[in-house]
Amino acid sequence: MRFWGAGIALFALASCSNGIVPPSASGNQPPVRQPVAATPMTAAAAPAITAEITSARAASLLAGPAVASLPIDEVGAVRALSAFRTSCPSLVRRTDASGLTRGEDWQAACAAAPGATDARAFFAQHFEAVQVADGKAFATGYYEPEIAGSRTRRPGYKAAIYRKPDDLAEIDLGAFSDEFKGRKLRGRVSGNTFVPYYERAEIVNGALAGRGLELAWAADPVELFFLQVQGSGRLRLPDGGVMRIGYDNQNGRGYTGIGKLMKDRGLLGPGQTSMQGIMAWLRAHPEEGRAIMNENKSWVFFRELTGPGPLGSMGLPVVGRASVATDPKFVPLGAPVFLSMDREDATGLWVAHDVGGAIKGSNRFDTFWGAGEEARAIAGGMSARGTAWVLLPKGALARLTAEGAGGAAARP
Predict the structure, then answer these.
(1) Spatial separation of the C-alpha atoms in residues 6 and 355, rounded to whole Å
(2) Structural domain count, the chain
(3) Cα radius of gyration (the chain)
(4) Where residue 181 falls among pLDDT bands split at 50, 70, 90?
(5) Is residue 294 a part of any domain in this protein?
(6) 48 lies in which domain range?
(7) pLDDT tens digit sequence for 271-287
(8) 2, 126 in Cβ contact below 8 A?
(9) How many CB atoms lie within 10 A of CB 239?
(10) 153: number of CA atoms within 13 Å, CB side?
């Protein structure tokens, strides 16, 4: 699983994803993109998700508006169609953890996608909008950062970027008991005991040093911290070249969003809870900043990317302004989603290509904005609320209703 998708605004205020990283260690921060307000479409009345509901199939499912009536702009539809085409080989063969679809459900749409020339008409012809639970959506944003880095250690580049260690082991608890199906632990073997893997502070202080695990070196540990939150990024090398790196694994320690810690402790004032504000505080208070970053015990290991990317959890390239991270238990990976939000830039058609450590539950989304200054500015302040509909192949809701899935019913 990729570590992307924890959500920048959520990171700042609640629990984690995606930090905004400046292109150099200078500390200069681009401004947060000021949103254009929009009025979300209204969701149908339905029960919210409760703790015992662990997948979309067990939630109430309501027919949404006709896809043709949704305010899908042509440019967004074209991007989403291109992203959907890349999803198809996986869609028709993978097991859908949400329980909403089967591989054969996608065959008609996937067969038609390569030859489709009218993107909006394609989605209207092959899909129906389905509201999961109360449909109340929350969206954050992430992007592909670029930071100063070097393939070798040299003056000014002291923060190690590690590849996955050989002694990092993963245990599938479901192999021992059905009670723990789907749950895994990461750690290492010490003597005859399986113990947690080194936490962030231990790694920063040299727990992995001298083992030849250094993939590259970052100029600034603050930038590296937030690149780990993103899960993927670009290193701008001293010679002007670029090295692209992506998520390879994680140490198994729980993620702690330092933005919430800082807000709760009164360290961030009004207007400082964006990613840019958090980074500015960390730079202004280096000693306290290091201690706060270490309170997030999670550490991400990377590998070099040489093909297209960055890659989402499906192993496919994520597409700026088209790909979104979701919880696969509530949205089929590869499925289109329409978001009607309280800000214009988040509203539109997206494709579920990724997952994230803090992207959990129904109607929780982390929108991907690509790379560059504009992507960083948009993702940095992304916090949108509104209504979401999952686009399922036509006929899927009728089948779910016949099977008695959740509270499947027709929208009044």
Answers:
(1) 9
(2) 1
(3) 21
(4) confident
(5) no
(6) 1-7+18-253+303-412
(7) 787 777 899 999 999 99
(8) no
(9) 7
(10) 10
